[in-house]
Amino acid sequence: MKHIHNDLLKQQRFERVIWVTISKEFNVMKVQDDIAGALKLKEDWPREGDELRRAAILSEMLKNAGKHVLILDDVWDKVSLEEVGIPEPSDSNGCKLVLTTRSEHVGKYMGCTVIKVKPLFAQQALTLFLSKVGPNIVQNQTLMPILRLIVEECAGLPLTIVVVASTLKGEEDLLIWKNAFRELKERIEKVEGVEAKVIERLKFSFDHLQDEKVKYCFLHCALFPEDFEIWKDVLIECWIEEGFIDDMGTRQEMKGKGHVILKKLEDNCLLENGSSGKMKMHDAVRDMALSITRMNPRYMIQAGLQLEELPKKEQWSPDIEKVSLMYNSISEVSIDVLPTKCQLLTTLLLQNNPIKKISISFFTNMPCLSVLNLSFTKIKSLPNSISELKNLTTLLLRGCYQLRDLPCLSMLQELKKLDLCWTKIEEVPEGMDMLIKLRYLDLEVFTLKEIPAGLLPKLVHLQHLSFAGNNEKTSLKAKEMEPLKKLECLTGHFEDINEFNKFISSMQQRIGSATTSTLAPSTTFSHLKEITIYSCSSMKMLLPHWLLPNLQNLEKIHVEACSQLVEILGAATSEVKEKGSDALIKFHLPKLRELELWRLPNVKSICSKSGVMVCDSLQLIQVFGDCDKLKRIPPFVPLVGNGQPFAYAPPSLIIRSSTEWWEWLEWDDDPNFKNVLQPLWKDERYEPFIV
Description:
GO biological process, one term: defense response
Pfam families: LRR_8 (PF13855), LRR_RPS2 (PF23247), NB-ARC (PF00931), WHD_DRP (PF23559)
Number of helices: 20
Family: Belongs to the disease resistance NB-LRR family.
GO molecular function, one term: ATP binding
Distance between the termini: 30 Å
Shape: globular
Strand content: 15-25%
Helix content: 25-40%
InterPro entries: Apaf_helical, At4g27190-like_LRR, Leu-rich_rpt, LRR_dom_sf, NB-ARC, P-loop_NTPase, Plant_NBS-LRR, WHD_DRP
């Protein structure tokens, strides 16, 4: 289906090609939102309101959307087009509706021409298997007889073929192949039904993951809703919180290990790449994961199912280890539904629910609870029973915009991560000075009135520390920061430049370097991965061209609220004169993935007018707020080519901005450049990481 979608985009026979995933839990309002989003109508689209009114608005929008194809993917049950607001396709409007479903009945009910997708023929299946199993196996004739038998056991199902082939990739031991065939055959023979057999084939890959912690990392992905795209960085943070990644010297090393695990799961086709910076799980692979978590380890996963209350008491079996109820419509958390004791419960995920009330004694009978996520809920306070969670290591309250009061936290002495970002607290919670095991503390809170003197020096294990960058009441002092020898990531606001210089000086002494001048120019910033610049009102250029050779590891640039900034990447006048005014100046950033520009009223260019970007790695350009003078996206030059700019874009690039900004852009250099970038552009507002 993706191939058809991409083909339609290339052919340009239709003005729009819209793809919406329906999923097992059909939700009219979500489908309406997704179609409206694909139509770039977020400004005028009513986020609330009754379904009938929204359906009428959507129907009118689709009628005015020109000739289009609407693809509804993964339809599990009959869908009323009228209820959603989808006009009937006809010859007169030139519109087409395509849907994919596992049920022939659904297709017939909706009046579709049913086209059965048959299993691959034997030769097609073999070709696909060989394309995934590695060149050394393709050339190994000894393995061919047993390999063909394994392909037969995959029953011509592309997902199964790809997953099994990836599991055996590069393996040249004939005995291992014979054992794999025997195991696969036995698995399939012991179950009845098509879906059960598919799950057993996929479980073959899971069981061949040799590291138990990697298996837990995989199962954790099933805690998210079906078809959910998970930010890679968020997923790795989850694994760190759960203890699936062993403690290492630094948090950065642990994140590196997380990326290795991600790559392993992706190589085994248990996870797949989503949109920029995200991963997702194929729904059949997720079904396999859910089948495992119903047995051992035992999870209760009811994420994204539109629940309005907690599951019934009988569903909370005493052997449950993890519960995910994220992305529902639960407004109250009551003790009444729980069994006497959730003795083994270690993880409770309630984020992204409109929860307003939590029973006073709700946390009383959860002695082993380690991870609690209440992010993006509507709670105003937490019950005192949270103080009884003596094994709690992670408490996430990010985006609880109404949260003002927290009980004393002094009893939570195992706590390693506390996230209070975007809450409404005015004071640091009582007992924070007792949380000496904290490694991650996010207090990016604009209402916070002060940082108590003597607090930070007690938190000597901190690796990540965040305060609101524009809250002067939480200004940092070098003396308070000096004991934090393990700090790797810091966001905040220093009292003045002297305090900042003192802090930098202490950091340099810590790494054995008294002044910046002792650093060789070629090593300055050579390991830098992220640059975030906020509210530097006198800065006119961010990165000069001469510095770029030192930034070969730079992955992300975020610039915000710098009122005098004119250029992001600039070339000195002397460089332009030396090369000649018509000569191209290449801005080479081989690992840059993200460029975010916010509220930069005087920025006129991303790079100098004579410059081109050599940046095949670029995945995301975001432009938001007042950036009205930025009217040009620089041309790109591929890493391999003749060095001349042409209508080219990095292969994974996505551009996010308002419609107004996109329409103001100028394309004087190469009008065809717009045609290349248009499919990559999305009219989206900024979405923070939601965990």
